[in-house]
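User: Hello, can you help with two protein structures?

Assistant: Certainly.
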Amino acid sequence: MALKTFVKISTVNNLSDARYCAGMYVNLMGFNLEEGNKDYLSPEKYKEMTDWLSGLEYVGEFEASHPDAILETAKTYEGLSYLQITEELHIPMLLNSSFNLILKQEINDVNILQHLLAKAPSLKENNVILLLESDSLDLKDEVKDLIKAIAEKCKVLLGFGLDADNISSLLEELPIEGIALKGGDEIKPGFKDFDELADILEVLEEED
């Protein structure tokens, strides 16, 4: 079994999410490694979880840490393939590391998309994947047109505006590399309501 597109799961903080998503053959699984963040995962819990998993790659997710601190932290998490950051200025300081890079950007208005369109060729040149998230924008035509233009110039993971009803049409309409979904908190250990995440992944399952 496989999924119809490249899928990253972000902020995984429990074994229920991790095992379910691995079983659904997602490509990347992200863990927040920044102490103080509500989704922070300690090296011990990371190892405990990843010891159960196979067949996918791991992303260390950071919001505000300096690159030196990011690289130091990453040493204590065995098996990371990617680092996810939010600051464009940090890219040059991490390019020569052994990690692939994902730049996560929060899109509050179309001006940010215009800025990213100008930056996209540089991201492609440096093999940086662009992850777009938003709590405020809808996937209206203007927004989709800009995302399409960006995705034609660099690899884009779309992380907002997705649901089980529109995911198939969006993948046909936009030349994106894939999508990004978020894990969530367990109701209690071992019990999890997957809701939209599971609905979307089930739509993306390839039929044998």
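That covers the first. Now for the second protein you mentioned:
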Amino acid sequence: MQATATVLVYSDDANVREQVKLATGRRPAADVPEVRFLECATLPAVLSALDAGGVDVCVLDGETAPVGGMGVCRQIKDEVFHCPPVLLLIGRPQDAWLATWSRADAAVTLPVDPVEFADALAALVRGRLQVAAKAS
């Protein structure tokens, strides 16, 4: 197992970024590596971080302004080669169809439920690590 998994967290709200970190803890599940967070509050920061590489999973806040996480998700799925899986934070359960439109790999509602969030994040980390293992 690799030493750490890098999780990019995009939100203009520091409280949302903190909720994500608290819900994750050191690792979202016992069978995945410890998580290192890369916090971004702007779209250019997200694109720069993805361009640099090394991101295993993206957590995008759909309620971020001026560029919401759903639009960012769709953009990076179109533009980033081997785009990491995306966990989208949505405002209401009824927004799940928008998460599908954005091509998010998973979605959970805000405020962050620690159990639901950790399960979703762990599943995406596991999937990403399996893909990486097959590629090497």
